[in-house]
Amino acid sequence: xxxxxxxxxxAAPAPGVAEPLLRRPPGRRGVVAxxxxxxxxxxxxxxxxxxxxxxxxxxxxxxLAQWAERDPRPCAWFSLDSFRDGRWPRRPTLVVVDDADxxxxxxxxxxxxxxxxxVPAGSTLVLAARGEPRLPLARLxxxxxxxxxxxxxxxxxxxxxxxxxxxxxVLLPEPEVAELERRxxxxxxxxxxxxxxxxxxxxxWTFAGDDRYVADYLRAEHLTPLAPAIRSFLMRTSVxxxxxxxxxxxxxxxxxxxxRLDALERSSLxxxxxxxxxxxxxxxxxxxxxxxSELERRHPExxxxxxxxxxxxxxxxxxxxxxxxxxxxxxxxxxxxxxVARLALPAYQEGRIVMVERWLRLLNxxxxxxxHPDVCLIGAWVHALRGRAPDSQRWADAAxxxxxxxxxxxxxxxxxxxGHGTERMLDDAVAxxxxxxxxxxxxxxxxxxxxxxxxxxxxxxxxxxxLSRAVEAAAAAGAVDTQIAALSERSLxxxxxxxxxxxxxxxxxxxxxxxxxxLGASVTRALELAASARAALHRGDRERAESEIAHANRxxxxxxxxxxxxxxxxxxxxxxxxxxxADVAAARSLLHQIDGILRLRPALGRxxxxxxxxxxQIRALEEPDGRWAxxxxxxxLRLLPLLATHLSFREIGDRLxxxxxxxxxxxxxxxxxxxxxxxxxxxxxxxxxxLVDATAVPQQRELADAG
Length: 707
Fold this sequence. Notes:
By secondary structure, the chain is mainly alpha-helical. It is 61% helix and 4% strand.
């Protein structure tokens, strides 16, 4: 809770007493032990001067009392009403001056400055204050005689926050403690007030600065004592996420914001500097919540005006993404749409799909959505990649209404959504690619659509060449999501033709690109995971394959008819991998999902044949002789892809770090379970069951079975 009241010290010895009576504030029950900070202070015993500067409620006095209790030196604890002169006691002493920022008279400042200049060896002068004391701290800092603790140092750790809440009678699971710590930024008083709120039925996930306990405290401790002009500045600038003098001047239509911000930082510490130069600031979270609620309560008519000015300033000064939020807060959705039309495609290309979704949500209720076809195009595609078929359809319909009949993006949207089959998809993709500007922002997407359309039509050579160009165009444009899709498609094409080295390299590049950008969940990410799992299985890395499959399975709800060709393709690849792992039940579950999409979008070219083959492979594994495949051990499943190569048993053993005899024993076990007598027959049977690539069969017929 707030800082405890300091206990005055008599400044001179009482009659018959050899030394001054040295006392400190008594400890209180339920106070969090600041063990780490006390240890830090004790370790700095040779530092002559310590400042502890933080707003009310950060436990400055509590911390210093705990330090004094554990420090072997006597403690002289001064409050302002009891401080008389600058004489040091006659032995090493810990001297605490509380409320040092309230030193008003020149005489008082001179006394403390004299103390600071003449700290005896072994003694420490501590200045506790809400704001930076008017003392020569810069000189003390350069002399190496100063240890400074601020709000970040005094903020409670996760464990300390949990202890405070428990002492206040609130027991919470770790995620809720973490959320309260985040919302309060470790402010001890804020956490205690949160405990009071929760005991009255509050929710840790919605606790904010407008909570009545927090609002009452901040109003009494911070807002009410301030001059009206400062209160006005605080409330009006609370609309800003980040503050600097220029944006504050623009929003408030004044010229002295730099002076105001500097005074705020030095006095109340309600704001946090965002850089070492102190050129930008933000309010502490609970403080900003409170100030915004005060603004809305006292001056509701100003909220939209101030936010609109902030949006205009940000747009004019190279911060259009910040302008989106201010325009939305002002209720100006047309301005939001204007900004998102510029920002959404580059953000999507960079892989920031979650950010794009947030912008799209702001525009959900815009009645004139079709006036912004650029936004609608991105909305339709992003919702499709996130598996939201109805939302994708609504945004696609709005795009259709806003685009002219000859706009190439209209044909591109048709191709990507593939609502009328793969033949129409190819026609639309060709028309779109021919019409989009070379090197333009839509060229990489058009190339991917065209490459996939060629693949679905059975022309894999042309598909791979087109997708190769898509990779280059996407890389040049910084279109990360499109680049990953093109790389993954090329990897799967290479694997299907037996080019496993190329498949491995392409899958690795796609995975590295995805990992480096921390992409959100999408069907594109599921495609990359499917390609990576297939490559891992072929090189015998079962652990990696299972990890990728587990990740991809979490994305299965995104596989819908919103982007049917991609969803079905991913489902088939994942099911094939599950069959290789002999998990027939998982493969059948995927087939059920695939069939559901095919019922809505039946004309998907070769994917229909691939689904039929998958269906027959699952049936084969469910037959009596096929069930033997389900009994293959992990070692035998790891061996199968290597049996389908020209490697000898000894070379396979080297790959697997086992002996030739171990490989031979495992191979014989596989032959027995398949009911065959040779390596080539085993590979043929494995290919029939979908456990290895069918391309491995011809080369195995040429391979001697000697091993």
